[in-house]
Amino acid sequence: MNTFNVPTKEDVSANNQAIFENLNKALGFVPNLYATYAHSDTALENYLNFANAKTSLSAKEKEVVNLAVSQVNDCIYCLSAHTAIGKMNGFTDAQILELRAGYSTINDKLNALAKLAKNITENRGKTDEAVLENFFNAGYTKGNLIDTIALVGDKTISNYVHSTTQVPVDFPVAQPLELETI
Fold first, then answer.
1. CA distance linking residue 117 with residue 114, whole number of Å
2. What's the domain range around 14?
3. Is residue 64 in a domain?
4. 74 and 37 fall within a common domain
5. Each residue of 2-20: pLDDT tens digit?
6. What is the value of pTM for the model shown?
7. Residues of the chain with pLDDT > 70: what percent?
8. 3 falls within a domain
9. Which positions ≥6 away from 112 have C-beta within 8 Å?
10. How many domains does the chain have?
11. pLDDT tens track for 107-119
12. 26 found inside a domain
């Protein structure tokens, strides 16, 4: 497999250099996966605009989707990043493992969301009717459904970028999910 370098600020376009500066200010560093997007003159800005767009989902709900999708797509980079972000959003280690497995014991609403995100990803959008009905019965709307599908797409893009490039994980590495222990 080709080895993909993680570009530095000096390696990228002027537009991406400005984005790197903003990421450094906001996060204290440029995550390797974001830097990898900067191999393209346009992909990093396009991705960040998509990922940071307004949504009807809360930050916590977004992490539910990010964790379930990244587990299905077996992306250690995104699992590691979203484990850290999930903790920042108040999830415990045990709750994060549940979400990665595609369910939640926190409440029925997050459980329905996790099941939906997992099902959409596993079935490539051919969502099971019972899972969809459960999502709506938990109080979600058609607008929430479309926002969830968009987020599944957003996270799948990053999962695929990492799976193809295999750039180093620069977050604490997420522990493997052992379904038997959950």
1. 5
2. 9-51
3. yes
4. no
5. 678 999 999 999 999 999 9
6. 0.94
7. 97
8. no
9. 134, 135, 137, 138, 140
10. 2
11. 999 999 999 999 9
12. yes
